[in-house]
Amino acid sequence: MSTIYVVGHRNPDTDSIASAMGYAELKQRLSGDHEYTPARLGELNAQTSWALGRAGLNAPPLLPHVKLRASDVMQPDYPTADHDSSLHEVGLRMAASDLDLIPIVDGDGAVVGMVTARDLARRYIKESGEPSSFDDRPVSVDLIVDVLGGELLMRPERRLTGRLWAVTVRTETMGATMGPHDIAVIGDRADAQRRAVQIGAALLVTTYGSRPDDEVLQLAAESGTGVIASPFDSYVTGRMLSLSVPVREVMSTDPLTVEPDDLASDVADLITDVHYSAAVVVDERGVPSGLVTRSDLVNPEPRRVLLVDHAELAQSVPGVEEAQIVEILDHHHIGSVETRLPVAATFDPVGSTSTLVVERFLSNGREPRRSTATMLLAGILSDTLVLSSPTTTQRDHDVVGYLEELLDLDARELGNEMFAASSDVDDVPAADIIRRDSKDYEPRPGRTVRIAQIETVGHGLMSRRQELLEAMERARAEANHALFALMITDIVAQGTDLLVAGDSRPVERAFGIEADDGAIPLPGVVSRKKQVAPKLLASLA
Question: All domains of the chain, ordered by start, with CATH?
Fold first, then answer.
């Protein structure tokens, strides 16, 4: 099954997290074709952490981006070979897999090399004009027996590091070329077999399954010459012998390896520097989990995301422009996110995206799990300021009523407890406060603004006005925003103090109120979506 990530916006608030978790649960229960995974795009604020704790849920995993990774484009099923395997076995695996390369692993399963069809071809074309030599790549007698499917009659006492001969000449001429560590392939010719042993050949290989006579075997035992009976003729035996070399002797060492989360674009750059144009994806122990070749990087399938509680490119997961958006569920205005294919997109003006999620549970005849229902209720109460925000609709009230009955609790008590538990920010650094619940907007191309909001009880946070303004100005300059506005909203008094970093004149014109030392009082204003963002963005458009 392919994975579809269900994500809210960056700097997530409670509704963003709750709707992602709730909608992922519902979609998973309705469909078995995909794996719906809720994810977050930033650190949780205190309120959301409290809500998750109350619901008995763990935070969704952090999704840093949806750009293609090595694990997204790799081939998970591919052959490997042990470094003690013969070239014959590696060649067979290569042919069976329709690949022209195979990663080589050691006894612990870690990648130690790479063998390609090019490596094999270059080695044997180089040797085609002269006898095969095992001087730089000793051959194993056990691998010879295995590759030939032959019978080991006597184990050699010398290393097989000489040359390979298929003897067809007269015995008188054999000593002129054959040496002590050589391998001699000889048919049913007792005279030639004896001569090879007398010369000191390290290994005698007979053909067609024939066995040397007792005299030859006795001489071989005395001289330390090994003897193998091959079922093949001289030509096939010689060819198979040359493939009995352990692959570790000819593999390319220091293979290109990458990690599963490495960007596919970076992998594409790396494989251009190796002749086999591929990379092995390995885990932290170096054990391979996939193979990325050049063809895997041609028109790969993008990662898939479902967006909730936002539709602004600047608010979404990094790399969303490269991903496939499968659905959008939001209660804000239609934003700047573009899709490559037609998708189901809902922009419904209710107080919370969590409200839309619960409505979809009900319309499909499903009931959210108790923990999920608790989180969704917290999301609605957070975004509607316990049903007091001007964005609140009758549908929000209806859904809250349903959840109250399902959970057997008082929603207002839960909401007040949640805000009281998360409104104490006396010990929270200013830099953390201003990014807790912040959203970026682009009123016109190349001109961005950030609007953050924090809900409090009372006006105590305004005593840190200068500290907050300085943190906002630093953040504004770093991100090159035209403006950074922070809404300090008192949910009891139902009003907001708006702090502004940058040119405050457009904001003053928008609300008809002059800033006082960087602050604009907005009595009766509690909603960023409905009361602040539209006016502020219009003034900057």
Answer: 2-68+302-422 (3.90.1640.10), 71-124+249-297 (3.10.580.10), 133-241 (3.40.1390.20), 430-540 (3.10.310.20)
- Please tell me the predicted confidence (pLDDT) of residue 94: 86
d(CA 245, CA 264): 35
Q: Please enumerate in sequence order all residues whose Cβ is within 8 A of that of 465, keeping only pairs 6 or more positions apart, or say none.
A: 499, 517, 518, 519
The band of 446, judged by pLDDT with boundaries at 50, 70 and 90, is: confident
Residues 6+ apart with CB under 8 A from 82: 104, 105, 106, 107, 247
Spatial CA neighbour of 247 closest among 257, 255, 259, 237: 255
d(CA 191, CA 193): 5
Q: pTM for the whole thing? A: 0.72
SS3 label, residue 130 = coil
Q: How far is residue 22's CA from residue 376's CA, in Å, rounded to a whole number?
A: 7
* Beta-sheet strands, E only, within 397-446: 438-444
Cα–Cα distance for residue pair 403/377, rounded to 1 Å: 7
Query: How many CB atoms lie under 10 A from the CB of residue 374?
Result: 23
CB 202 within 8 A of CB 182: yes
Q: Give CA–CA dist 438/481, Å, rounded.
A: 13
